[in-house]
Fold:
Amino acid sequence: MMEAPTTPPETSAGKPRILEVRTQILKKNDVTARSMRDRFRAAGVFVTSLVSSPGAGKTTFLREVLLRLNRTQRVAALVGDLATENDAKRLAESGAPVRQIVTGTVCHLEADMVERAIGDWNLDELDHLFVENVGNLVCPSSYDLGEDLRLVLLSTTEGEDKPLKYPTIFNTADVAIITKCDIAEVVGFDRDAALASIESVRPGMRVMEVSARTGQGMEQFLQYLQDRAADRPTRRP
Amino acid sequence: VHELSIAQSLVELIEDELSSNSPGDSFDVGKVVVKVGVLSGVVPEALTSAFPVAVQHSRLRGVTLAIEEVPVVVFCPSCHADRPLSSPQRLRCPVCDAPTPTVVAGRELELVSIEVLE
Structure:
């Protein structure tokens, strides 16, 4: 699989020339993400993405967010998954339009996948769009999806030191959401340790503690989301 | 692991750069230098192993990859100075221990240069 570098033939005249490039390797993704961000701003839709490890409760949390937000706002969601469409079905129970992005073997979403999935949706008719990434705490961190806000979810059933193990994803996210707080005590969740880990990798990061099941913290989160949406720069005429 | 995706993007980018300079069916390339920040989400070793796979079906011949790892550098608001950190796990000033949320380097994922053999 690894081919030996071919050396140029002796007769080859000119000597090596160094071409200075200095370009982002993910330039294509960044360009797509930027153009989508412009589209989102022009349409006045606030875009929130969610990342977490598998099983942290992204879908349950998002379903609850959609259910509550759907009463007063126009919302939609895209959900990335390796193979199944189960998450889309669960989210659609909220009544919001939902589209699945099946990524196949790809362990993260890229900007063009989001762009394709949006397809013919009229963004002007939306207030909030949510993009649920594939459950993975490593790969999604490198890709800008054009979102306004990136949430990283950490559940009380995971190790409190997870932020220390995955500092990059916490560093690229804007807000940390601690999920499944209703069972924190039962599973022996060390809240102080978790908060200290987050603070260590991302000083000053906003942390919100929720339980989709009991509703704890949900209204505070929605209020925060709507404040952020109201504050963002728009290009609406 | 997404390093194969990254390697494919890198190969495409190299091909694009070379095509715009000298159109051809294939390119004889020497060393390609990339910068990989500690907070880029990319593991240099994984990128090194994925790169030859991405090169296989490309128009690049003889290319080798050189990775420059970029450490995390933060701005310390109390010292008013940039400070390199030995680990991304603790974003605090190594001199005065103030929290340092502002990252000034370490997120790079950049193609720096291509050695073109002509």
